[in-house]
UniProtKB/TrEMBL annotation:
<dbReference type="InterPro" id="IPR003656">
    <property type="entry name" value="Znf_BED"/>
</dbReference>
<dbReference type="Pfam" id="PF02892">
    <property type="entry name" value="zf-BED"/>
</dbReference>
<dbReference type="InterPro" id="IPR003653">
    <property type="entry name" value="Peptidase_C48_C"/>
</dbReference>
<keyword id="KW-0862">Zinc</keyword>
<dbReference type="Pfam" id="PF02902">
    <property type="entry name" value="Peptidase_C48"/>
</dbReference>
<dbReference type="GO" id="GO:0008270">
    <property type="term" value="F:zinc ion binding"/>
</dbReference>
<keyword id="KW-0479">Metal-binding</keyword>
<dbReference type="GO" id="GO:0008234">
    <property type="term" value="F:cysteine-type peptidase activity"/>
</dbReference>
<keyword id="KW-0378">Hydrolase</keyword>
<feature type="compositionally biased region" description="Basic residues">
    <location>
        <begin position="107"/>
        <end position="119"/>
    </location>
</feature>
<dbReference type="GO" id="GO:0006508">
    <property type="term" value="P:proteolysis"/>
</dbReference>
<dbReference type="GO" id="GO:0016926">
    <property type="term" value="P:protein desumoylation"/>
</dbReference>
<keyword id="KW-0645">Protease</keyword>
<comment type="similarity">
    <text>Belongs to the peptidase C48 family.</text>
</comment>
<feature type="region of interest" description="Disordered">
    <location>
        <begin position="107"/>
        <end position="134"/>
    </location>
</feature>
<keyword id="KW-0788">Thiol protease</keyword>
<dbReference type="GO" id="GO:0003677">
    <property type="term" value="F:DNA binding"/>
</dbReference>
Length: 385
């Protein structure tokens, strides 16, 4: 065990070092956390599926141990800093957060089967309650192509490229963001898979991040929903959560998605046991900025990927309506910028398809040849391959 972990286990909360908060009367030594690999539990007590109480100041945080660590470490975002955390505590927690992100970024891209993904999504949520460990969330790996989509991206190439792209974004920028699998919104709209999608979202505490990207595939068209600062909804508007809907084809009338989007957001809050009223949630603004537009009917998926990349690179730590639309204008990026990005997607797609084809050929060569059998029934012969 490293020296900083030894120090963590011996931290004492002294009465004279605290403010007049709820925990100011506590002078007992902090107990050993339930998960020694995560120093965040040294400072928090779990009070519910996603609620943790800070031992230093008594603040209740939703979003699991991930948001508590941001609270302790004074990470800028959607949670207030702990007034009683020391510089040493902040240093240790920040080092752990950065190390977790770097460890995640070193993992190779995962192209896994539908069956494997379904198993992972049903695991015990308590086995990994820290959202920092998951940049992307459990995915449903159907290889589903858009019908009559021509050269549009299918969801498999989209997910593979996004995972590769995500690994190249700096750790510091990724720490405040998360993204959904591109099929989740479609699956949510189906009665028989809605509950499962809501459970996946609840298990992973995605709203502990400042920005959550929700790719939407609907009516053979891609668009991007961004949920901004949903960790703590403040009806008094001291913080300003909002939703952004980016569409490279405004002629497709993206506003018609609003009823489904608002129902989705309300169901997510309800499934997590949040206390916000229906009116408070319904008052969250849905903004549709005028972003660069596609030039043909096949580019929408590539635009969504580029929207995600450019937004992560440019987004402020606190996106509010004051100053909106910020960088989200028709001049956000040039056609040349997008064309260069599209070439990267095309190269990636060709490489992956070639790799898959080679794997299939290798499988065929290693498989035994079919054995021909003949069943004689009188004068008739039935051949079976």
């Amino acid at each position: 065990m490293g020296d900083h972990h030894k120090n963590l286990l011996c931290v004492c909360v002294k009465r004279d070092s605290m403010s007049t908060s709820q925990s100011a009367t506590s002078s007992e030594k902090l107990t050993v956390p339930p998960n020694l690999t995560d120093p965040g539990w040294q400072y928090g007590d779990k009070k519910g599926p996603s609620t943790v109480v800070c031992r230093l100041c008594g603040k209740k945080t939703s979003g699991g141990i991930s948001r508590l660590k941001k609270h302790i470490a004074h990470v800028k975002g959607d949670i207030t800093p702990c007034p009683n955390s020391t510089e040493e505590m902040k240093r240790v927690i920040r080092e752990y957060l950065v190390a977790s992100e770097k460890k995640k970024s070193k993992k190779p891209a995962r192209y896994v089967s539908t069956k494997r993904r379904k198993r992972s999504s049903s695991e015990d949520p308590s086995s990994s309650s820290d959202g920092i460990e998951f940049d992307s969330l459990p995915q449903v790996r159907h290889t589903r192509k858009l019908r009559n989509a021509g050269k549009k991206l299918d969801t498999d190439i989209f997910e593979s490229f996004l995972e590769d792209l995500w690994s190249k974004i700096s750790v510091e920028k990724r720490m405040s963001c998360a993204y959904f699998d591109s099929l989740w919104f479609s699956l949510y709209k189906k009665d028989h898979t809605r509950a499962k999608v809501l459970q996946w979202i609840k298990d992973k505490n995605v709203f502990s991040r400042n920005y959550t990207f929700v790719p939407i595939v609907c009516w053979n068209h891609w668009s991007l929903l961004i949920l901004c600062h949903f960790g703590e909804i403040d009806c008094l508007r001291t913080r300003s959560p909002c939703m952004l809907l980016l569409d490279s084809l405004l002629g497709a009338e993206p506003k018609r998605l609003e009823p489904d989007i608002r129902k989705f957001v309300f169901d997510v809050f309800e499934s997590e046991g949040r206390k916000e009223s229906r009116k408070c949630i319904s008052d969250i603004p849905l903004l549709i900025p005028k972003v660069p537009q596609q030039r043909n009917g096949d580019e929408c998926g590539s635009y969504v990927l580029y929207f995600i990349y450019r937004f992560v690179e440019s987004a402020p730590s606190n996106f509010t309506q004051q100053g909106y639309p910020y960088f989200l204008t028709e001049e956000w990026f040039t056609e040349d910028d997008f064309d260069n990005f599209s070439k990267e997607i095309e190269t990636f797609s060709m490489s992956k398809k070639k790799s898959v084809s080679q794997e299939m050929d290798a499988t065929k060569r290693s498989s035994p040849s079919p054995v021909q059998c003949e069943i004689h029934t009188g004068n008739n012969i039935i051949e079976i391959d």
